[in-house]
Each structure stands twice: as C-alpha cells, then as structure tokens.
Amino acid sequence: MQVSAYLKLSIAVALATIALKTGAWWLTDSVSLLSDAMESLVNLAGAMFALTMVTLAQQPPDADHPYGHHKAEYFSGGFEGVLILVAALAIIWAAANRFLHPQPLDALGWGIALSVISSAMNGALAFAMLRKARAFRSMALEADARHLYTDVWTSVGVIVGLVGVQLTGWLWLDPALAIAVAVNIALEGSRLIWAAADGLMDSALEPAERAQIDTTLNEFAHQTIRFDHLVTRKAGQRRFVDLHMHMPSDWSLGRAAAVRGAVEQALMSAVPGLRASIQLLPLDVEAHIDDGRDLS
C-alpha cells in the first residue's frame, strides 16, 4: 500500500471511531469520553489534510517549484499539531465545567466496551502506518500514526479512569482524567509542530544516511581525487547532498565528467531518494563558501 492509501484508511477508521466514541459519550455522559471523541474528530481533520498534502508533495517539479513539492508534508504535521492543541484546550474547558457541576455517569459498561473497540482499531492502524512511514520517510504519515498512538493511550487512560469511577463512585475522577488526557495530547501536538518546523528549516540527513554517503565517497577517494564542503538536507521524502570533488587539473573534461557521473550514481544508489550535486574543481583550487558578507 502507498502512503495515500494508508491515509484514506485512516480517514475511514476515524469516521468509525467517531461514531463509536460519540455513542459511548451519549450513553454515559462522561466528559472524559467526550474528550476522547473530540480527539477522534482531530484525527479525521488531520488525516484529510495529510492526504491533501501528500497528494501535493507527489506532484512533479514545475517552473515555480523546480525542486519539487516535497516539503508540503511538513505542513501536514504542523497543521495536525495545531489541531491537537486546540482539542486539548477544548477538553480542559469542558472538564473544568464538570468539576464545578459533577454529574452521575450511566451505562459505563457499554461506554467502556465501545471505547475498547475503537482503541483496538486505532492501535492496529497506527502500528501499520508507523512502519510504512519509516519505509517511505513520510512526515505526514508519521504524524498521523503518532497522533493515533496518542489517541490509543488517551483511550486507555479514559477506560482505567471510568473503571475507577465505577468502583469508587468518585465523580471527580472523570474530569480529572479528561484534563490529564488534554495535557498528554497537548505535548504530542507540540512535538509534531516542532518536527514540522525543523523539517522546513532544511535539517541535515540522519546520521545513518550521512554514514552511507561517507562510505560511498571513501570508495572513490584516493591521491588524485578528494571531496570536501559536503552539505546535506532533506525535504519530505527527498534527500539532497552537495559537495566539491577535486581532481587533477590535467584531466580532460570528459574524463572528469565520467567520474563525477559514477560518484553521483553510486550515492543515489546507496541512499534511496537522494539527489546529488557535485561541483568539479582542480586539486590545487579551494572554494570559499559561507562568506558572512553574503548575508549582509
């Protein structure tokens, strides 16, 4: 299955869990179950936006975006993080009102059963999505999967709390648990926003990918060829590396270009999704980059 297929499945599961959790809240009048249902609404909105951004990210480069649209996925993660924070504030507001006006809970057995079913659905989907996100290096899919995992742990906490209310009769446990749920999902939302912002700032490749690049270059480096000024960045699923390759000045242009082509092909084979850009320089010439005057 492709990334978009998983996101479509996430939308379908979000609709199902909204129905289950809303039913659980309607039967019990539990504010913690209401908070759980509200988070599923955020899941739905996030999955729909993620699908839109993934579709945009897959568009080929054009005149206005010659490097492609891969960074669109980061907007998905940031948007989902903001939605989570808004949901957390709404949950805290509802829970505070319930603290002031406690109400008895009804049909807790049915409410707990519906919550368990929806949690199992979210947990299975989140596990599959996170594995696929790592394989495809999709920020949008990873954000949606981590949000689903947060939803699962939220539901587990709600279920435990409702069992506590049923056993003790302490009605204050219900709003207290709702606030704890809100704090938990707010932390997850903050992490998603930070990850999206970090991606938009052209962060370097992960250490494992950088190690693959270094290993590949070492296979070509010798007394007549050396590499320097290597920089990397990532944009969604795409990876980029720029570097200088120094070689003897008496080499013909054809010979130098052939070696450069071999190095670029080896790099792109070593790191899937990588685009390599190599500037040729003589051995006795040093390039000057990152001059502070360029920023003035």
Mean pLDDT: 81
- CATH 4th-level superfamily of the largest domain: Cation efflux protein transmembrane domain
CATH topology of the largest domain: Alpha-lytic protease prodomain-like
Portion in strands: 5-15%
Radius of gyration: 26 Å
Q: Which ranges are low-confidence, i.e. pLDDT below 50, for 5 or more consecutive residues?
A: none
User: What does the overall shape look like?
Assistant: elongated
Overall strand count: 3
Category by helix and strand content: mainly alpha
CATH class term of the largest domain: Mainly Alpha
**What is the domain tally?**
2
The DSSP helix count reads 8
Q: Termini, distance in Å?
A: 48 Å
Give a structural overview.
With 296 residues, the chain is mostly helical. It has two domains: 198 residues, Cation efflux protein transmembrane domain (Alpha-lytic protease prodomain-like, Up-down Bundle); 89 residues, Cation efflux protein, cytoplasmic domain (Alpha-Beta Plaits), CATH 3.30.70. The chain contains eight helices and three strands. A three-stranded mixed sheet has the order 1-2-3, with helices on one face. Helix 2 runs antiparallel to helix 3 and helix 2 runs antiparallel to helix 5. The radius of gyration is 26 Å and the shape is elongated. The mean pLDDT is 81.
